[in-house]
Amino acid sequence: MSGGSPMSRRRMLALAALVSAGMVGCGTNDRTTVRLASGEDGGFYYAFARLLAAAAADDTDTLRIEPVETAGSQQNLRMVADGDVDTALALADSASDFGGRVVALGRVYENYLQLAVRTDGPINEVADLRGRRVNLGAAGSGAAVTGQRLLTTAGLDPAVDVVVEHRPLREAAQRLTAGAIDALLWAGGVPTAALTVPDPLRLIDLGALAAPMRERYGPAYDRVAIPADAYPGSPAVHTIGVANLLLAAATLPDETAAAIVDLLVRHADALVPAEAAGTQFLDGRFLIGTGTVPLHPGAAEVYRRWHG
Questions:
Q1: 22: buried, middle or exposed (CB in 10 Å: 19+, 13-18, 0-12)?
Q2: More confident residue, 163 or 244
Q3: Model-level pTM?
Q4: Following CA atoms 189, 289, 154, 200 in sequence, which dihedral angle do they give, to the nearest 10 degrees?
Q5: What are residue 181's phi and psi, to 5 degrees?
Q6: How far apart are CA 4 and CA 36, in angstroms?
Q7: How far apart are CA 261 and CA 267, in angstroms?
């Protein structure tokens, strides 16, 4: 009887390894797993990634999306360019540095730059940060890049005129309310829960810097409004919006890219985190507007089918 031969045992072990890896079998093992570099837990990127993962789980038997918690745009871009993840969320002004290795699946949202200070503090404009301590996003975040540009546009030298920290959002918010820093910059949805605990913080109006930012660094920056009471008791302010892109490795198979974009188009309304409803929207008509970042061929095919 051959069942106990060494060859048979090797074949059985090989088959067991394939089943464990999800290469054979049925149910969820047949799904292609796509790792999505998102952002900090509590932020807009992470919330969106979880909603997209839920849409994939409910809608398809062939695709599974696995959100990966990260520091933000810069880390996400390095991860997708290096092949550590398949897809990533990033600010449009950061994505241009990774041409060739990263392509776009769609433009998903507008990120709002939010410069928060204590409600009783003396800071009323970016220039007032001279000589003060400011957190410009976690190391690896898009705000770390955009924040440097914001300070420079306002006439400040980030290396000389301010004391810059790079800490995660929740830690930075705690330091701000405790008086350990004077301001924090966050790029995300409105409202962001971490900016309301334990007490609401005050946002600085950045609207006047939108046009100079565009002139100096390119068209990624828009002047946008944050409505009154977006945070409890806060007045309406203008700020700078930066498009969020859902990106992919250039090597992502066309059929996988197409399946993700199909989810975006068909489930746009369900992909808005509840805390941002009313200030954010995702519209299938604008997904194609990825600016200077080229579309993945699989994504382009889906948009051609939808838009003709």
A1: middle
A2: 163
A3: 0.81
A4: -10
A5: -130, 165
A6: 44
A7: 10
